């Protein structure tokens, strides 16, 4: 359950949330019609109310007071408080718990206070029109979100349903697919489903990116995508090649947590949806970006103080499409940590001589069960780390001491020397994990 739930102490009959079908059909069951007839208040847009009234001749004799959804919408909370215990119907479209009002309600009211009557959602209707099973499809809301956030969901063979706004037109989506190397994808634009001007049109990416004429589409539409990319598509498996990260003159070189080390670090961090992650000394952001791609519903903060690297960090954040769950902080740790939500995991890849303070502050803020992973290369930072950990352990009671695991990774990479394979050793990296039990 969401941490922000505020129990409105609902008493009396449960609020009835009734989803209406798409287009002209209302798809209301006899039970839903009964609820509408018995309601004291029906809340809905004029369009929704008209549609509900059409559901049955009986509804022309509705006795309920009809109320428009408040603007701003947040006013609904106070309205519900003021009408606690009354017989209320809230009108919605499709399935209210699928990208609908149910999300908002579930954060404010206990489950027993609401009774849902779902209808066919627009996404379900769209898949039924193209005749493809959709149990494994992923629905992506691009409403008010930068189009780049789509990149996070592009995987070879994936089936996506996009809920769009004016910035995510079918042509804009096709351009995005082409930029990300998913240029062989198929799109279906499903317009005005169930309405008089319903149209389902299939396109290939190239159909939509050729020419200057933007496609004119009905404002109510869903875009479905069957993702298919070529060799240069964005990777959809952990362990992003270093060279795909902008780091300066030569991509993937310089200050970056290299792929092999990054994979070990990430397996310890174990990214999970719903968690908060801090990447301290984020550099070009390789760790934070992979973390975000593995946990699209997590929240990551990348802290970096070097101006040029912040530029690369932002560039990489966009090119990998983790724009919705990665926040870049151009700041210094530990000073900036006070403004962040408590983390479930922390990676310290750079500390600029402040490791003791960063470690202490991060440990104090770490949620129970959380972990801090630190990677160091130089002998100076290794000894700084050991001292910082000793100090931390000395300050904590036996029962609260971190559970520590340490590895040293010595990677040697194949190279060519006068036609012979050689293994060129890289600097060993010491990686330590501190777990709060
Ligand atoms: C080795 S790099 C990190 C590499 C990074 N994990 C990656 O993959 O790009 C260390 C970074 O830490 C940053 N840094 C050092 N001390 C810092 C501090 N106190 N606050 C924020 N950033 C810091 C440096 O500017 C540098 O970019």
Automatic annotation (TrEMBL):
InterPro entries: 4pyrrol_Mease, 4pyrrol_Methylase_sf, 4pyrrole_Mease_sub1, 4pyrrole_Mease_sub2, CbiE, Cbl_synth_CobL, Cbl_synth_MTase_CbiT, Cobalamin_biosynth_MTase. Residues 15-207 form the Tetrapyrrole methylase domain. SUPFAM superfamilies: S-adenosyl-L-methionine-dependent methyltransferases, Tetrapyrrole methylase. Pathway: Cofactor biosynthesis; adenosylcobalamin biosynthesis. Pfam families: TP_methylase. Coiled coil: none annotated. One of its GO terms (biological process) is methylation. The keyword Methyltransferase applies. Keywords: Cobalamin biosynthesis, Methyltransferase, S-adenosyl-L-methionine, Transferase. One of its GO terms (molecular function) is protein methyltransferase activity. NCBIfam families: CbiE, CbiT. This is Precorrin-6Y C5,15-methyltransferase (Decarboxylating). The lineage of its organism: Bacteria, Pseudomonadati, Pseudomonadota, Gammaproteobacteria, Oceanospirillales.
């Amino acid at each position: 359950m969401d941490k922000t739930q505020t129990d409105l102490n609902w008493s009396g009959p449960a609020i009835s949330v009734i989803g209406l079908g798409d287009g002209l059909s209302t798809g209301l069951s006899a039970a839903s019609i009964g609820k509408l007839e018995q309601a004291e208040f029906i809340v809905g847009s004029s369009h929704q109310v008209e549609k509900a009234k059409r559901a049955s001749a009986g509804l022309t004799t509705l006795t309920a007071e009809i109320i428009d959804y408040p603007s701003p919408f947040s006013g609904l909370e106070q309205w519900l408080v003021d009408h606690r215990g009354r017989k209320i119907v809230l009108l919605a479209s499709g399935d209210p718990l699928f990208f609908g009002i149910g999300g908002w309600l579930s954060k404010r009211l206990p489950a027993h206070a609401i009774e849902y009557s779902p209808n066919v959602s627009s996404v379900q209707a769209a898949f039924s029109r193209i005749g493809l099973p959709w149990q494994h499809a992923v629905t992506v809301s691009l409403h008010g979100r930068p189009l780049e956030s789509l990149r996070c969901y592009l995987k070879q063979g994936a089936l996506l349903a996009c809920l769009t706004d004016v910035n995510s037109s079918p042509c804009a989506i096709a351009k995005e697919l082409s930029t990300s190397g998913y240029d062989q994808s198929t799109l279906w634009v499903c317009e005005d489903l169930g309405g008089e001007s319903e149209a389902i049109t299939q396109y290939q990416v190239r159909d939509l990116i050729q020419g200057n004429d933007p496609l004119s589409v009905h404002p109510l539409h869903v875009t479905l995508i069957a993702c298919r990319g070529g060799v240069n598509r964005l990777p959809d498996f952990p362990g992003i090649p270093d060279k795909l990260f902008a780091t300066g003159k030569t991509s993937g070189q310089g200050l970056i947590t290299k792929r092999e080390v990054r994979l070990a670090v990430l397996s310890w961090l174990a990214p999970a949806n719903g968690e908060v992650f801090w990447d301290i000394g984020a550099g070009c952001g390789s760790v934070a970006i992979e973390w975000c791609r593995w946990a699209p519903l997590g929240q990551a903060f990348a802290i970096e103080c070097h101006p040029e690297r912040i530029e690369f960090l932002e560039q990489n954040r966009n090119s990998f499409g983790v724009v919705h769950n990665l926040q870049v902080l151009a700041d210094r740790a530990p000073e900036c940590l006070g403004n962040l939500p408590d983390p479930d995991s922390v990676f310290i890849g750079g500390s600029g001589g402040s490791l003791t303070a960063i470690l202490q502050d991060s440990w104090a803020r770490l949620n129970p069960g959380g972990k801090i992973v630190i990677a160091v290369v130089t002998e100076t930072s290794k000894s700084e780390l050991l001292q910082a950990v000793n100090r931390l352990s000395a300050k904590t009671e036996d029962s609260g001491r971190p559970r520590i695991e340490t590895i040293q990774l010595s990677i040697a990479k194949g190279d060519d020397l006068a036609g012979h394979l050689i293994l060129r050793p890289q600097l060993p990296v010491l990686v330590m994990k501190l777990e709060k039990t």
